[in-house]
């Protein structure tokens, strides 16, 4: 269980694309994919000034189950994780899994996605009467690639990814228990080999990995326990001290009749953390705080109960889970929707206890909300049909998700016609109805894409030189976002699937970086094609070759790079507007209709320049912003404030933000005071620098930079040149200061900053050359590489860049 406090810091989240692999999305009953979406799916919260999906009215009487198609995991809102197959999975072609668990944690400054669940051994149709342990999969992003945790360094001869098993009893040592006696395999005449582990969860808390899981009904003792890693996510794991003798909590009468008296304890243990505190959440209504060392809970018996609003009568519930979002606590349960017949012959679907005429239909996820962890909790509502025994989590962008697995034991998915699609590691996108109503549902039909939050993130900009991207440099700077642009007309010479820049975007995405791609339409020497013309048809046809490689891969696409620069001056009127509006509508339609992941790429209009100059605020710019404002699929605009004076950056914000919708955000994928640098290129070099390095005092700054271009300087010499120049030294915290400005608006999605010197910056160097090279975080063209051959950071930027992550 993850709360905001233990996920990504608010305002620093990055976008993650997700809805890939839709071939594995949930099958629906006949006709379920058709029909109009439910009404009332959007509202405006007056306090927040943002649009939110509207909550549905409570069903009456309390306890009825909502079966509407909108609450199903469907092809448009869910997918099955493409987990790496073990040898046992190859015949089925996927991983068989119940109780699917997925989460996202920040480890070493990067998002790490984890997946686990209840699995079975070859030859058995279910996860009992025994299974062989807990397997873990890891990925840099939700869509993968998902790889089994590398456990070869711990157990070279064991199956990869298996982090704990009753098989590991031989690893017990004095003072270190891996498998307790009550967790060992055992045998009897009725079932043969017995003992299974269920419903594992993996958590990263205060720098340590934990697994909370449950020994199932066929175990010596049935109940929940905690494992603590002595290494990384792969282990090795040992048992918490409080579980050496028994599971957490008290024993009671429950479970199947074959369970021995006194063996049954509360199942489905879960972990909730907030700040430096952790709690055990148990079965359906219990909780207890962990000791500071997490070796046991306090109290160990007679655990307190959540204050809930029970159904009447209350059925059996399980799989309890607590999740915090928007300052509220959500208590999740798995509940069977049982279908029966009303007196008037209509069907009743409700969370009823078993009884005559009641047939298990769907294993649902139900939620309740509270201001406090302990409660009191509201009445429950159906959050997801068939999504029971799951967890809720946030991806690296702040998007909410839930897991699902499609219960193969009973009900809808146990039908012989469907069971082949049951027991899957599925995830479904969720939606939050905002702070006024605080409901979370499976994302319902008819919803537009959830907008990108105001992340306030800072990333690395490479412009057209994505091929210069170096992952070592990105990691050194703790960067998680990258940005570049792609000239659309390049597709005429190089097939888009062979484009080096697009390949880098895909590769970075697969490595877990967040990506921004600006689509550049070079029109400096050609008129804009008119809508409906053969030329426009060709332009859009070219775009159609590019978009399948971009949508669902790039987290953000900007429609245009710098439209008011990359065009003929005489065309910067309604003709520019018509062109970019046509292109934008085409991209929006392509995302909605053709993208394999339509809910994963956010769209912004391309960058505006020189808005600090009143003469640049033309009618065409006004129309450009008006189009962005009135088009729901456009989430904002990009800004490129390259100015002489930092104060002029505020002019961009003052002009632009009032012209956007209140719920829109903005990008700043380029910014600098490059014109300030340029006016000092012909200054004399600092006197102290001249004396120390043997230059004539009349030598100008641009001349020394030219020497560094011809023969890169040692880092100290380069740093001395800039640090001893007041015009540079006084601006060395530009990154810090301008990010504070952008973030103070509460509407910055992502900014990116020039990351690496590239050859175009140094070509034909002169006193009048625009000195973009002074902006770069890394300076491989003017500073000698480090001893290990890696690029050296330029002066001033790297420390602030890191601290702003």
Rounded to an integer in angstroms, the radius of gyration calculated over CA atoms is: 29 Å
Please outline the major beta sheet: 8 strands, parallel, barrel
Q: Report the CATH C-level class of the largest domain.
A: Mainly Beta
Order of the strands making up the biggest sheet: 29-30-31-32-33-34-35-36
How far apart are the first and last residues' alpha carbons, in Å? 24 Å
Q: How much β-strand is present in the residues? A: 25-35%
Which structural class fits the helix and strand makeup?
alpha+beta
Describe the structure.
The protein has 805 residues and is an alpha+beta fold. The chain has two domains: 4-26 and 57-442, Glycosyl hydrolase domain, family 43 (Tachylectin-2, Chain A, 5 Propeller); 458-676 and 729-755, TIM Barrel, CATH 3.20.20. The chain is 17% helix and 25% strand. The protein has 14 helices and 36 strands. The protein has an eight-stranded parallel barrel with strand order 29-30-31-32-33-34-35-36, surrounded by four helices. Strands 3, 25, 26, 27 and 28 form a five-stranded antiparallel sheet that branches. It starts with 42 loop residues before the first strand and ends with a helix.
Features:
eight-stranded parallel beta barrel, disordered N terminus, five-stranded antiparallel beta sheet, globular, TIM Barrel, 17% helix, 14 helices, single chain, 2 domains, alpha+beta, 805 residues, Tachylectin-2, Chain A
Topology:
Layout: E1 43-45, E2 50-52, E3 78-80, E4 98-107, E5 110-118, E6 134-135, E7 137-139, E8 147-148, E9 162-164, E10 186-188, E11 192-194, E12 197-205, E13 208-215, E14 223-232, E15 235-239, E16 270-274, E17 277-282, E18 286-290, E19 297-298, E20 318-325, E21 328-341, E22 347-350, E23 359-370, E24 381-384, E25 392-394, E26 400-404, E27 426-432, E28 440-442, E29 457-461, H1 471-476, E30 481-487, H2 500-510, E31 514-520, H3 534-550, E32 556-559, H4 574-593, E33 602-609, H5 619-630, E34 634-640, H6 647-656, E35 665-668, H7 674-678, H8 687-693, H9 701-710, H10 715-723, H11 726-729, H12 734-744, E36 748-754, H13 759-762, H14 797-803
Parallel strand pairs: 29-30, 29-36, 30-31, 31-32, 32-33, 33-34, 34-35, 35-36
Antiparallel strand pairs: 1-2, 3-27, 4-5, 5-7, 6-9, 7-8, 10-11, 12-13, 13-14, 14-15, 16-17, 17-18, 18-19, 20-21, 21-22, 21-23, 23-24, 25-26, 26-27, 27-28
Helix pairs in contact: 3-4, 4-5
